[in-house]
Amino acid sequence: MLHRSVFVCFLLGMLIILPLVLLAPQPVLAAGDSYVNRYLEASEPVPLELDSQGNTRLFSAQDLSAGKVLFEQSCMNCHVGGANLPDPTISLSLADLKGATPPRNNINSLVAFLREPMTYDGTEESFWCRQVPESWMPQAEIENLAAFVIRAAQKAPAWGVENFES
């Protein structure tokens, strides 16, 4: 009899607690993480250049936070803080991204580079940066990754070599 009453109390407790847990407010991912909000100044959606014609697209703090996670998982071993460990003379600064052939300072051009990495002068395939096929990172994800890199190059303190020299 004692076991039955303990079991009934347990069930009643679960019926009360479980809905509270499931319906409790979850952390707001749309706000992005504190790095994105503070250093990338992206608490509101930010327009980033899509192509060389000047077309833009808004990227939310959530988009940039997702891109930051992808960067941390896939790129940070060689590009911590916007540096470029395989070739320290070329960083992920806006000036260096723009100076590449072809330039890599907008979303579409950086995505194209990530899909088919080329040397900085564009003359041959690069083996320093790994190729990111659609099967590994779908278009929306790779665009968020590119958006994070470009926004970090625009705003993050000490991103890439360029900012160390300023």
Q: Features of this protein?
A:
166 residues; mainly alpha; two-stranded antiparallel ribbon; 8 helices; 2 strands; globular
Task: Record the SSE blueprint.
Layout: H1 2-23, H2 34-38, E1 46-49, E2 56-59, H3 61-74, H4 76-79, H5 94-99, H6 107-115, H7 139-155, H8 160-165
Antiparallel strand pairs: 1-2
Describe this structure in words.
InterPro entries: Cyt_c-like_dom (IPR009056), Cyt_c-like_dom_sf (IPR036909), Cytochrom_C550 (IPR029490), PsbV_cyt_c550-like (IPR016003). Residues 62-153 form the Cytochrome c domain. By secondary structure, this protein is mainly alpha-helical. Helices cover 50% and strands 5% of the residues. The chain is built from 8 helices and 2 strands; from the N terminus they run ααββαααααα. The chain has helices spanning 2-23, 34-38, 61-74, 76-79, 94-99, 107-115, 139-155, 160-165; strands at 46-49, 56-59. It has a two-stranded antiparallel sheet with strand order 1-2. Helix 3 (61-74) crosses helix 7 and helix 6 (107-115) packs across helix 7. The longest helix has 22 residues, at 2-23. The N and C termini lie far apart (78 Å). 30% of the residues are buried.
Q: What's the number of extended β-strand segments?
A: 2
Element string (H = helix, E = strand) = HHEEHHHHHH
What count of helical segments does DSSP give? 8
Output the structural class.
Answer: mainly alpha
Radius of gyration: 22 Å
Contiguous runs where pLDDT drops below 50 for at least 5 residues: 24-30
Query: How much strand content do the residues show?
Result: under 5%
Morphology: globular
Strand ordering within the main sheet: 1-2
Organism: Microcoleus asticus IPMA8
Family: Belongs to the cytochrome c family. PsbV subfamily.
Membrane topology: Peripheral membrane protein
InterPro entries: Cyt_c-like_dom, Cyt_c-like_dom_sf, Cytochrom_C550, PsbV_cyt_c550-like
